Each structure stands twice: as structure tokens, then as C-alpha cells.
TrEMBL record:
InterPro entries: ArgJ-like_dom_sf, Peptidase_S58_DmpA. Belongs to the peptidase S58 family. This is P1 family peptidase. SUPFAM superfamilies: DmpA/ArgJ-like (SSF56266).
Length: 354
């Protein structure tokens, strides 16, 4: 299950569209999420896995797209997604200096299911996305191992926890404790019910810039000296069961930027802000023999429904991460307050938030 205290429990619902049952990326049938959290000594880090429905993503590649809002990042695998419009491994989220380790784990995972990789057939494109958790985490310790990445994959489930878990363990956002958040929207098309779900790794935003859905600004109780620029990163992963082409997916995931802007982010110079989306409704078979293949796509006269859902779900997923995370003290006594505690205190005292 996701965190017991979430954005909507704090009165932070976003938009008009109905959510899925879980209000989670796993409302998209078959999508699963798993965590491996490392929280000991000066270590505050981990790995989060997003696993598509196919039992073998290398053989059944979901159609996908990526959009880079600001490219101050070290993610792996994005170039091939841009070129071919598919993913062929689960997605791993982690800290910046653990990208290589997680790539190796994904390669081993793919080879285990496909012994022909790199020999009788093509190599594999592992996809790992990252944020820098070095304020709370001793990132130089290189604590994440291949076994941690594998554990996150093995833990993948429709029910998962949000907040300061997995890759989100050591993340910060808007001067508060950040982390993993999620939200979904239900969309009706031709009398069928579909879902668009978002998961974020929130580690971005300048302290004092956070804007709530009612328009008020919330500042952390104290800001760290020198934190006057917007830096960090945010990773947005979108999954849907609506049939889309990779061009349409890119159009949809671009609207993550609208959700981030509503929160007060302007994608600063030092921030790596990346959106990746995939559909479970269209796949490309690795061993396809036909010269021509069929795929369903959305009538783009309806695509505004997805644009709105993407913006709303992104905005709410970030708030979900902030509310669920709670306060944390990490490396060298560095501390981040929790947004939920701050909201409770402000609402009980009536102290202005802006």
C-alpha cells in the first residue's frame, strides 16, 4: 500500500478528474513498483523499480517516450528511447552515483531471461534515472549495490509505500523532505475506462517557492544557508493503458512541466528535470517477423483529456511525496523538515503561509 498519510489526507487534491482506486501509477493494470531502502549511519538512499506488465520487457517492448525539461542529469538509456520509441527493461530510480551499478543490475536481469542478448541478438538498453541525494546521504560511499537493485525489482507489487523510501530515502524538495510520490487519473474513452498514472522522484525546488493548490506559498521552518538557487532534480514516470504512439506519449509527458510550474518550479539551471512515459496498450515484439504491424492510437481530438490528467497527476504526485516523507536527519546532521508537520503547525496556529 502507499503511505497511510497522503496528499489528499492533507487536503492537497489537484484538478477535477477522478483518480483511480489507489490514486497510484499501479492503477494502470499490470504495472508494479518496488523499493530497496538504505537507511543507516550516514546512508540515506536506495533504489525504486517501476516494472511494466510484460513478463519479459526485452521480448515485448512497451512503446515509450522521453522528454527532457532541463538536462542537468546523468540518467542512462534515454537516447535509445528517443530514437526507437520503446523501453526494453524495467525502470530503476536511484541516486546520481549509483546509475552505473543499477545499469549493470538491469543488464544481468535481462540476460538472465534472454541468454541470446549480445550473442545471437542485439544488446539491451537499461534505463536508469537519478537525482542527487547528497545533502542527506553520503553519496560518496557508493552504498547502492547490484543486490539492492535486484531486491527492488523482486519487491515490485501493485501496492507500495510512498515518501522517504527506495530512491526517495534521501531526497529533498522545496526545502522539505522529498521522495517518492504517486497519483493517477481515470479517463473514459468510447465508454471504456482507462488510467494514466504518475510516479515522481521529487528532489527539486527552491525553499520558499512551494505553492499549494489553493495558491498559498509554504516555506520550511528554516532554510539552509546558501540555498538560494533551484537545483536538484525531478524524475516523472508516466504509465497508461491508453493506446498511444511514441509521438503522442511525448506530447502527453511534456505536460508534466505544467504540473511542476503550478508547484513553483521554473526548472532552474542546476536541476535535472526528466519525464518518461510508456503505454501498456502498444508493444513492439523483439522477434517480430511481419513487415507491417498494427497499433491502435488515440484520436488526438481527445488528447486534451490526457494533457490535463498529466499536469494534475504530476502536481499531486509531488505533493504526495512531500506529505508522505516526514522529517529526516542525515549525513553530518543535515536536516529536512516534513511538509505534513509544517502544515499541521501552520493550520493550528493560523500563521500565514505566504
Amino acid at each position: 500500500m502507499t503511505s497511510l498519510f497522503r496528499a489528499r489526507d492533507a487536503g492537497l487534491a489537484c484538478g477535477r478528474t477522478e483518480t483511480g482506486v489507489r490514486n497510484s501509477i499501479t492503477d494502470v493494470p499490470g504495472v508494479r513498483v518496488g523499493h530497496r531502502t538504505l537507511n543507516h549511519g550516514g546512508i540515506r538512499t536506495g533504489v525504486t523499480a517501476i516494472v511494466p506488465p510484460a513478463s519479459n520487457a526485452y521480448r515485448e517492448k512497451p512503446v515509450a517516450a522521453v522528454h527532457v525539461l532541463n538536462g542537468f542529469g546523468k540518467s542512462a538509456g534515454l537516447v535509445q528511447i528517443e530514437e526507437l520509441g520503446t523501453i526494453e527493461t524495467p525502470l530503476l530510480l536511484t541516486n546520481t552515483l549509483a546509475v552505473g551499478t543499477c545499469c549493470t543490475a538491469l543488464v544481468r536481469h535481462a540476460i538472465g531471461a534472454n541468454p541470446d542478448i549480445g550473442r545471437e541478438t542485439a544488446t539491451v538498453n537499461p534505463v536508469v534515472l537519478e537525482c542527487n541525494d547528497g545533502f542527506l546521504n553520503d553519496i560518496q560511499a557508493l552504498a547502492v549495490t547490484e543486490a539492492d537493485a535486484t531486491a527492488a525489482l523482486d519487491a515490485a507489487s501493485a501496492d507500495f509505500v510512498s515518501g522517504a523510501v527506495g530512491a526517495g530515502c534521501g531526497m529533498s524538495a522545496f526545502g522539505f523532505k522529498g521522495g517518492i510520490g504517486t497519483s493517477s487519473r481515470r479517463i473514459a474513452l468510447d465508454d471504456e475506462s482507462f488510467h494514466l498514472g504518475v510516479l515522481v522522484l521529487a528532489n527539486f525546488g527552491r525553499a520558499g517557492d512551494l505553492r499549494l493548490p489553493d495558491g498559498t506559498l509554504v516555506r520550511p521552518p528554516s532554510a539552509v544557508d546558501g540555498e538560494t538557487t533551484e537545483k536538484g532534480s525531478v524524475i516523472i514516470v508516466m504509465a497508461t493503458d491508453i493506446p498511444l504512439g511514441d509521438r503522442q506519449l511525448k506530447r502527453v509527458i511534456r505536460r508534466a512541466g505544467a504540473g511542476l510550474a503550478r508547484l513553483g518550479s521554473f526548472w532552474g539551471h542546476g536541476s535535472g528535470d526528466i519525464a518518461l512515459g510508456f503505454t501498456t496498450a502498444n508493444t513492439v515484439l523483439h522477434d517480430e517477423r511481419a513487415a507491417l504491424i498494427d497499433q491502435r492510437v488515440l484520436n488526438e481530438d481527445r488528447i486534451d483529456l490526457l494533457f490535463e490528467a498529466m499536469a494534475d497527476a504530476t502536481q499531486e504526485a509531488v505533493l504526495d511525496a512531500l506529505v508522505a516523507a516526514g522529517p529526516m536527519t542525515g549525513r553530518n546532521g543535515h536536516h529536512r523538515p516534513g511538509l505534513a508537520d509544517t502544515l499541521i503547525q501552520l493550520r493550528s496556529t493560523g500563521t500565514p503561509r505566504s
